Amino acid sequence: xxxxxRLVFVDExxxxxxxxxxxxxxxxxxxxxxxxxxxxxxxxxxxxxxVSPRRQRLGLYFQLHDANLHAPDVCAFVxxxxxxxxxxxxxxWDNGNxxxxxxxxxxxxxxxxxxxxxxxxxxxxxxxxxxxxTLAKGALANGRPDSRTTLRxxxxxxxxxxxxxxxxxxxxxxxxxxxxxxR
Length: 183
Fold this sequence. Notes:
globular; 183 residues; alpha/beta; five-stranded mixed beta sheet
């Protein structure tokens, strides 16, 4: 029996010690205050939202980095995903510069079962992996991590919670503008 290809939608995001602010509540007449650090420490993250060949099972893979992501980091992440997924894999991502170049071409040459496809330019609404970042940033909103270590722990907890929930992962597809293809 030959398996069909697995789809993996990949995207990157950044998380700062300065919190994202979302609507919240406070007693009437008392404006809520959100204290924050003025440090610009950050974490870079990459994730891949996978779809099984029969579109029944979804998976989430992710890695966190202390520095900005570059092509070798992206290739290391794709190799990590390939170690977990059998058979042909189609990675769909945006046209970012870190998804191009000799390192990425070498990755494709090393893994013939890997195929890379790009979304149209300026179309993040098509990528269901954007929903993963929406969930993570929502979970971290209005918080004030004291260090990059705390931010990492909070982000990992959010991503692991999302990974365990097929409902949340399916919601990432539902919120995207992709044509519906999950059962």
